[in-house]
Design goal:
The complex is a heterodimer of chains A (317) and B (557).
Chain A (H helix, E strand, L loop, with lengths): L2 H25 L11 E2 L15 E5 L3 H11 L2 H5 L5 E6 L15 H13 L4 E5 L6 H7 L2 H8 L2 E3 L6 E5 L7 E5 L7 E5 L1 E5 L3 E3 L1 H4 L15 H12 L3 E10 L12 E10 L2 H8 L11 H9 L11 E4 L1
Parallel strand pairs in A: 1-6, 2-13, 3-4, 3-8, 4-5, 8-11, 9-11
Antiparallel strand pairs in A: 2-12, 6-7, 9-10, 11-12
Chain B lengths: L2 H25 L22 H4 L2 H11 L10 H10 L2 H6 L1 H10 L10 H7 L8 H15 L9 H30 L5 H16 L10 H14 L6 H6 L1 H9 L5 E5 L9 H4 L23 H5 L5 E5 L20 H20 L20 H4 L8 H5 L5 E3 L12 E3 L12 H5 L10 H5 L11 E4 L5 H4 L6 H5 L7 E9 L5 E9 L9 H5 L8 E4 L22
Antiparallel strand pairs in B: 1-2, 3-4, 5-8, 6-7
Classes of the chains: A alpha/beta (317), B mainly alpha (557).
Chain lengths: 317, 557
C-alpha cells in the first residue's frame, strides 16, 4: 500500500467514524419532534356578570325565531356577548345522522338565526361545527344544520383528524385531550344544545353537549361521567348557552329515531349560567335537577347555580 | 386524415377514457352538499359505476351465472357490437388498465435486452398469448356453473378495486405523512405551505378521511405485479392473461376491419414490431392475428414504406412470404374442452368445502341489501365500489372469510365502521345487483316493512365493563340506533372487590329489534376486541341463517 493511499483510506475511515458517531451523539436522547406539548386555554369566553340581568331567560313561542329573540334580549341581547370583530364559534348538537323532526340534533332554524345575529352584531367570522358521533358529512347534511349555517353566512367545519389540537383541560379527571381547534381558537363560544333523554346521565343538555368538542377515546368518559362533564364545562365556560327546547327527545336518547319519542314544546332558553340552564331545561324531561348527578356536582364545584330561580330567571310569553 | 393524426386520436382517446374512469372512481365518494335543498335522503349525483356497466365480461359473466342481465349492463353492447366489426378497439383505445399497461410498457428501458432488436423480437406473437383464452373459457364455465370469478381478472373491476382500495388510500396516507413531516421540520412557511397544498388537493383527490381497508396487500401485490410485468414483456397482462381481451378477441372473428400488408414495398426494417401492443405479427412474413391486435395503429404509423394499412375489407395479395391474416385463435380443442371442464368443476369443488355453508364464517357480514350468499357469489365482481363509497369505511375486501371462492368480495367489519341506518349508498353503486338498492324505508323499516338486518349483536360479558368490572358504561345503548333501542339497560346491584354494593346499569340485547348494524361494536370502549359484537346470524337475506323462530311473523312496532 502506498503512503498516499494509506492516508486517503484512513482519513476517509476516520471521517466516516466521526460522521456516524456524531450523528448518534447528536440524536442521543433528544426529544422526538413528534412529541406534542399540550396547549393551554388562555382566553375566557365569558362576559362580566350583571346583577340586573337574569342569568336564565325562557321564552315560549310557536315561532322559534321569535322565541330565540325574546329570550336572547332578556339576557342582554347579542351586543352584550359579541363585540365587533370577534371570532365566534357556535356549538350545536350535530351528533347524529338524524333529521330535524327526530329531535336528536339542534334545530337548524335556530342555528341559522344565531349565526345571523352574531354577524349582525359585528362578528368577524362565525364557525359552526361539532365532533359528530356518526359520519359528520351525513350528520351535518341530514340535520339541515350544514345548509342553514352556510346560508346564514357561517363557515361550516366538517372535522377531520388534523383539525384537533391537544389541550390541557386542567380537570380533576380530564387532563390532556384532543379538542377541535375552533372551540379553543376563538373569542366567543356559544353552546346550542337540544334537550334529550340519556340513560346514564338522565338528561343531555348544555354541559353534556360539550362532549362534542373532544376527539380521542371519549367513550371512556362514561366510566366517570359526572366528573367528566363537570371538567369539560369548567374548561369551556361558554359565553352563552342557547337551549333548543322546541322539541324534546323524551325516550331512546340521545339518538331517538322515532317521532313518537318527541314532545313539542316551542321553547328557547338563553342563559349565561350553564348549570342553571340545565337545571331549568331538565324539567322538560320530568326531572328534578337535584336528581341529576352532573348538575349537582357542577353546582357543588361552583360552576353555576342549581337553583335557577336564585340565579335570576325570567319567562317571556 | 393521415395515419399519425389517427394515432394521435387514439392517444387522446386513451387519456380521455383513463381520465373518465379515474374521475368516476374519485366520484364514488359521498360528499356533503349544503347547497341542495333536499336534505333528507343522501345519494350520489352521478352514476359512478357506469364504466363497469360497459364491460362485456361483467355482462356475460353475470348473465351466465344468474340467467339475467342486471339493469345498466345492456350498455356493454356499446363495446361488444362494434368489436364484432372492428376488432379489439376497446383494448387499444378505451381500456384504462390497457392504457396504463401501454404507457408503462413504452417507457424506454435502460436494459439493452428490452430495446431495439430485443424489443422487436419480444413483440412477435408468442404462444403464452393463448393462456388468456383458456382462462376465459375456465371463467365463463365457472360462471355458468354458478360461481362468478371473472371479476378477479376482468380489467375494469380489477382497476376499480385496485384504485379504490389500494392506490387512493395509499396516496392519502402518503399525503398526510408528507404534511406531518413538513410541519415537524419547524421551518418557516414549509409546514404551512405543505398544509396549504394539501388543502387545495385534498377535496379533489382524497377521501373525506383516511380509510383503512382489510387485506389490501393481496390486491396491491397483484396490481403492482401486473404493472411491473410490462417492463419485461410489453403488455404481458393484455396479451397473456386478460379474459376480457380474450372475449373481445373471440368476438372479432368476423371483423371487417383488418391489416392489409403490401409485400412489394416492404424492406423488412421491422419498425412495425417495435411498438406493437398486441403481439399480433404486423410484419410481413408472418400471419397477422386479428384476435390479438389492439388496433393501436402503431405499425401503420411507424412503417416508413407505407406497406401496412388498416382497411375495411382488406384485399391482400397473399404469397408464400406474405401469408393471409387469420381470425382464428391459437387454441386446441382438447385444451379448450379441458378449460371448460375445469371451470365447471370449480363450482362443486369450492362448494364441497366448508366455507360456503357448513362452516360459514360468523364474521361474514355482507352489506345491507345483499342477495343470499349463493346469488351473491354469482353476482359480485369484486369491483370494490361499495367499499369505496361506504362513508363509514365499514365495507372491506375479504381475504378468506368467505373461502378462496369469495376473495375480495365485500364484508362489513363493525369494529372499523358500522352500517349507518339510513345509508343506502353501497346498493346504489353496485353494478351487478349483488347488493340491491334499498329505499330508506326498506333499510330502516317502517310500520309495514321490517328493517334490513345484516346480523345480530351479542355480548361478551367477560369483557364488558359493567358486566365484568363493575364500571359504568352504556355506550353501546347510547349508540344503538333503533327506536326502541335493541340494547336495553337493567339497573342491577353488583359488588365491587371490597364487597360494597354498587348500582350498575347493565346492557342486554333484544334480538327482535337488533338489525346488526354494528354501531355498538364500533363504539364499544373495549376497542381491541369489543365486548359487544355482531355476527351474521339473523341476516335478512338468509332464511336458513335465522336465530328467532318468529322472525318472519314479527313486525317492528
Amino acid at each position: 500500500m502506498k503512503r498516499r493511499e494509506f492516508i486517503k483510506k484512513t482519513s476517509s475511515a476516520v471521517a466516516l467514524v466521526v460522521a456516524t458517531g456524531g450523528t448518534a451523539w447528536f440524536f442521543d436522547q433528544r426529544q422526538s419532534s413528534r412529541y406534542i406539548q399540550p396547549g393551554r386555554k388562555t382566553q375566557s369566553f365569558e362576559v362580566a356578570p350583571e346583577p340586573s340581568i337574569p342569568q336564565v331567560a325562557l321564552s315560549r313561542d310557536e315561532d322559534s325565531i321569535a322565541a330565540l329573540h325574546k329570550a336572547l334580549n332578556a339576557v342582554g341581547g347579542t351586543e352584550r356577548f359579541i363585540q365587533p370583530g370577534e371570532r365566534v364559534t357556535i356549538k350545536p348538537n350535530i351528533g347524529w345522522d338524524r333529521t330535524e323532526a327526530q329531535a336528536a340534533n339542534t334545530s337548524p332554524v335556530l342555528v341559522g338565526e344565531m349565526v345571523r345575529l352574531c354577524l349582525a352584531a359585528g362578528a368577524a367570522q362565525v364557525v359552526v361545527t361539532d365532533v359528530s358521533c356518526n359520519d359528520p358529512r351525513r350528520c351535518f347534511q341530514r340535520s339541515g344544520i350544514g345548509e342553514a349555517a352556510k346560508n346564514a353566512g357561517a363557515s361550516v367545519l366538517l372535522p377531520s383528524e388534523d383539525d384537533f389540537v391537544t389541550m390541557h383541560l386542567g380537570g380533576k379527571l380530564l387532563t390532556a385531550w384532543p379538542v377541535l381547534s375552533p372551540f379553543v381558537n376563538t373569542d366567543r363560544l356559544i353552546n346550542m344544545p337540544i334537550v334529550k333523554q340519556h340513560s346514564l346521565t338522565l338528561c343531555t343538555i348544555a354541559m353534556k353537549n360539550l362532549y362534542g368538542i373532544l376527539g380521542g377515546p371519549r367513550h371512556q368518559l362514561h366510566q366517570q361521567i359526572d366528573q367528566s362533564i363537570v371538567d369539560l364545562a369548567a374548561f369551556c365556560r361558554p359565553t352563552l348557552t342557547v337551549v333548543d327546547a322546541t322539541r324534546i327527545l323524551m325516550r331512546s336518547g340521545p339518538q331517538g329515531g322515532s317521532l313518537d319519542d318527541v314532545n313539542i314544546e316551542h321553547t328557547v332558553i338563553c342563559a349565561t349560567d350553564q348549570v342553571a340552564a340545565d337545571s331549568r331545561a331538565c324539567e322538560f324531561l320530568g326531572l328534578s335537577p337535584d336528581r341529576v348527578g352532573h348538575i349537582v356536582l357542577a353546582a357543588k364545584t361552583g360552576l353555576g347555580s342549581m337553583d335557577y330561580r336564585a340565579a335570576g330567571y325570567r319567562e317571556i310569553a | 386524415m393521415s395515419i399519425s393524426t389517427v394515432r394521435n386520436l387514439r392517444r387522446v382517446s386513451q387519456v380521455v377514457f383513463f381520465g373518465v374512469f379515474f374521475w368516476l372512481i374519485l366520484k364514488t365518494n359521498f360528499k356533503a352538499d349544503f347547497d341542495s335543498t333536499g336534505i333528507s335522503d343522501i345519494s350520489l349525483p352521478y352514476p359512478v359505476s357506469i364504466a363497469l356497466q360497459f364491460d362485456p365480461l361483467v355482462a356475460l359473466g353475470t348473465l351466465l351465472a344468474n340467467g339475467t342481465l342486471h339493469k345498466g349492463l345492456l350498455w356493454s353492447l356499446v363495446i361488444l357490437i362494434p368489436t364484432i366489426f372492428l376488432g379489439r378497439f376497446f383494448c387499444g383505445w378505451v381500456c384504462p388498465l390497457g392504457s396504463l399497461n401501454h404507457w408503462i410498457s413504452e417507457i424506454r428501458s435502460e436494459r439493452r435486452k428490452y430495446r431495439g432488436k430485443g424489443k422487436i423480437q419480444s413483440n412477435r406473437y408468442k404462444s403464452y398469448q393463448k393462456i388468456k383464452f383458456y382462462l376465459f373459457f375456465f371463467l365463463i364455465a365457472a360462471a355458468l356453473a354458478g360461481t362468478l370469478q371473472t371479476g378477479l381478472l376482468d380489467p375494469l373491476p380489477l382497476l376499480a378495486r385496485s384504485l379504490g382500495t389500494v392506490v387512493l388510500p395509499t396516496m392519502h396516507s402518503a399525503a398526510l405523512g408528507l404534511v406531518g413531516w413538513a410541519k415537524s421540520l419547524g421551518l418557516p412557511y414549509v409546514g404551512g405551505g405543505a398544509q396549504l397544498a394539501y388543502d387545495i388537493i385534498a377535496p379533489y383527490l382524497l377521501n373525506f378521511r383516511l380509510v383503512h381497508f382489510h387485506g389490501i396487500l393481496t390486491i396491491g401485490l397483484l396490481f403492482v405485479a401486473i404493472l411491473i410485468l410490462n417492463r419485461v414483456f410489453t403488455r404481458f397482462w393484455c396479451r397473456g392473461i386478460c379474459p376480457l381481451g380474450a372475449m373481445l378477441g373471440l368476438f372479432s372473428r368476423f371483423a371487417i376491419l383488418g391489416l392489409q400488408k403490401d409485400e412489394s414495398s416492404c424492406d423488412h426494417c421491422n419498425l412495425c414490431l417495435l411498438h406493437c401492443q398486441g403481439g399480433d405479427n404486423p410484419d410481413i412474413g408472418a400471419r397477422w392475428r386479428q384476435a390479438e391486435c389492439h388496433l393501436c395503429l402503431n405499425c401503420q404509423a411507424d412503417c416508413p414504406q407505407g406497406s401496412l394499412k388498416f382497411k375495411f375489407f382488406p384485399q391482400q395479395k397473399v404469397t408464400v412470404k406474405n401469408p393471409a391474416s387469420t381470425p382464428a385463435i391459437n387454441v386446441t380443442r382438447r385444451k379448450t374442452v379441458a378449460s371448460l371442464a375445469a371451470g365447471l368443476a370449480l363450482y362443486p369443488l369450492v362448494r364441497s368445502g366448508d366455507a360456503f355453508k357448513a362452516n360459514a364464517n360468523p364474521k361474514l357480514i355482507r352489506p345491507p341489501g345483499s342477495v343470499a350468499e349463493e346469488a351473491f357469489l354469482a353476482r359480485c365482481i369484486r369491483c370494490g365500489q361499495c367499499m369505496r363509497v361506504c362513508p363509514n369505511n365499514a365495507l372491506h375486501p375479504t381475504l378468506l372469510e368467505s373461502g378462496l371462492e369469495g376473495i375480495w368480495t365485500p364484508i362489513l367489519i363493525p369494529a372499523i365502521g358500522y352500517c349507518e341506518p339510513t345509508c343506502t349508498l353501497c346498493g346504489e353503486v353496485c353494478p351487478t345487483g349483488a347488493i340491491l338498492e334499498l329505499t330508506t324505508a326498506q333499510k330502516v323499516g317502517d310500520e309495514h316493512t321490517p328493517p334490513n338486518r345484516i346480523g345480530t349483536a351479542f355480548m361478551d360479558r367477560g369483557r364488558c365493563l359493567p358486566w365484568a368490572m363493575a364500571k359504568p358504561c352504556i355506550v353501546c345503548e347510547e349508540w344503538c340506533p333503533t327506536s326502541p333501542k335493541a340494547i336495553y339497560l337493567k339497573d342491577e346491584t353488583v359488588f365491587d372487590r371490597n364487597g360494597v354494593e354498587v348500582r350498575m346499569k347493565r346492557p342486554y340485547i333484544d334480538p327482535e329489534l337488533c338489525t346488526g348494524c354494528g354501531a355498538c361494536e364500533f363504539a364499544c370502549p373495549v376497542t381491541d376486541k369489543p365486548a359487544i359484537y355482531v355476527t351474521a346470524i339473523g341476516e335478512s337475506r338468509a332464511p336458513d341463517r335465522q336465530l328467532l323462530l318468529e322472525r318472519n311473523r314479527k313486525q317492528l312496532t
